[in-house]
Specification:
- There is one protein chain.
- This protein is 48% helix and 0% strand.
- Helix 1 (33-59) runs antiparallel to helix 4 (101-120), helix 1 packs across helix 6 and helix 4 (101-120) crosses helix 5.
- The protein has helices at residues 33-59, 79-83, 91-97, 101-120, 124-142, 164-177, 187-191.
- It has 7 helices and no strands.
- It is globular, with a radius of gyration of 22 Å.
- The chain is mainly alpha-helical.
Length: 203
């Protein structure tokens, strides 16, 4: 591009020079305003999924958790779920973890931390990693590759590899890597904080 050439790199020429990144109208923008808003909506929805699970298990709102099994009433968020695992190589391990205080606290802290981070749009990378680890463990607990449970009953698995746990985990990572918290979130303000600035892994 010469001084006489009024075109900007964003407009492009269709014939990029060596190492140039060109975005033309025909190719479309890397991230359009509508695209960033769609990612923000997805981020808020996933954050709400985690926060709802935390709140329902804590207060027993009568959806997945009856009032009498609420965490604040002495119920265990992990006992019922992990105690009923009937598939996979970690079946006995999950049974041993079921109802343990440390497992309850880690699980609930993970739910609320990931939920708050994604709703607020801050610390998305560490939250995505934590959320992906939680979802991977839940995938292991359901073990979609199994056709039958340890008792011989059909597992009712709908997909042996990619179930909703895998999709949620991939979505968390994609949202973190695209800085989705900058739209309808506190991502930009978070990035300007002294302890965050220059540390990409905290974004």
């Amino acid at each position: 591009m010469t001084a006489e050439d009024p075109r900007t790199p964003a407009e492009g020429t269709g014939e990029p020079g060596r190492g140039a990144v060109v975005t033309t109208a025909a190719q479309g923008a890397v991230m359009t305003p509508a695209g960033s808003r769609a990612l923000a909506l997805l981020r808020l929805a996933l954050g709400f999924v985690f926060l709802w699970a935390f709140a329902d298990k804590t207060f027993g709102w009568g959806y997945a958790t009856p009032a009498e099994r609420a965490w604040i009433r002495g119920g265990s968020p992990t006992k019922g779920y992990l105690g009923r695992v009937e598939v996979g190589p970690l079946e006995s391990t999950f049974h041993a973890w079921a109802g343990a205080a440390w497992a309850d606290w880690l699980f609930m802290l993970g739910l609320v931390a990931v939920g708050v981070a994604f709703v607020a749009g801050v610390a998305l990378l560490p939250a995505a990693v934590a959320g992906a680890v939680m979802l991977a463990l839940m995938w292991m607990a359901e073990w979609p590759p199994a056709r039958h449970t340890s008792g011989g009953a059909p597992s009712m698995s709908t997909n042996p590899v990619v179930d909703y746990h895998a999709v949620y985990a991939l979505a968390l990572i994609a949202l973190a890597l695209t800085c989705s918290g900058d739209t309808w979130g506190l991502g930009r303000a978070w990035a300007r904080l002294p302890f965050v600035r220059g540390r990409r892994w905290l974004r």
